[in-house]
Design brief:
Serine Threonine Protein Phosphatase 5, Tetratricopeptide repeat, 14 helices, Tetratricopeptide repeat family protein, mainly alpha, TPR-like_helical_dom_sf, about 240 residues, elongated, Ycf3
Length: about 240
């Protein structure tokens, strides 16, 4: 009888030491934040084994796959999270990002639209949807999304730069020049912006002196594509 009681006591101790669903999830998040993505996936799988309807674990697992550039696996995990709960914008946004990396722009826009409907205050949704629309050559819609962000905070050079690309695609070099000037004024290390500014100045307005100066700046910043234009058009 004594041995049986000791055995039952041992089982109780083992059960008490078994980590809870919440503890496993928290540890998986710690692994994710520290960049140990495979370990994070393993913890999230343990959470899912305990609770197959843990939508946040699927979403976190998808993020870990995304960080490893395993976009198909990430999409699968985000989709599982969405199937369990369609009320959070996060898995829609995250799945959109995975589609964007795969250049599946239409699918990305659909996910961003859903995410935006669930939480229209998230500026990252507008920016990433703008990038997807730019990839689809839907320039006016892309400009709209970039403008939403810039109206809240115009001091964002990367948004200004991508807006300029959409404006050029929309055959509006005047507006594009303004956006590109804003870009380089805020970030004088952006070689591609100097390049695009120089090319636009020369090709759209015949401004050789200013164009060549910006192309040379682009080349000095390591943007080698500027050399072709400099060799062809900027030699004295």
């Amino acid at each position: 009888m004594k041995n049986k009681l000791l055995w039952l006591f041992a089982i109780t101790i083992l059960l008490a030491c078994s980590p809870s669903e919440e503890e496993l999830f928290d540890e998986g998040i710690k692994m994710l934040e520290s960049g140990e993505y495979q370990k994070s996936i393993e913890f999230m799988d343990r959470v899912i084994d305990k609770n197959p309807e843990h939508t946040s674990a699927y979403n976190a697992k998808g993020v870990a796959f995304y960080q490893q550039e395993k976009y198909d696996e990430a999409i699968e995990a985000f989709s599982a999270s969405i199937d369990l709960d369609e009320t959070s914008y996060k898995p829609f946004f995250n799945r959109g990002n995975a589609h964007l990396e795969k250049k599946q722009f239409k699918e990305a826009v659909l996910d961003y639209n859903k995410a935006n409907g669930l939480d229209p205050q998230q500026s990252d949704i507008y920016y990433n949807r703008g990038l997807a629309l730019l990839g689809m050559e839907e320039y006016e819609d892309a400009i709209f999304d970039f403008d939403v962000i810039l109206q809240a905070n115009p001091n964002q050079p990367l948004v200004q730069f991508n807006k300029a690309k959409a404006q050029l695609g929309n055959n509006d070099p005047v507006a594009a020049i303004e956006s590109l000037v804003n870009t380089v004024n805020m970030d004088n290390s952006n070689g591609p912006a100097y390049y695009l500014l120089g090319v636009t100045q020369m090709s759209a307005f015949g401004q050789k002196e200013d164009g060549c100066a910006n192309l040379k700046m682009a080349l000095s910043l390591g943007f080698s594509e500027a050399k072709v234009w400099i060799d062809d058009f900027c030699k004295d």
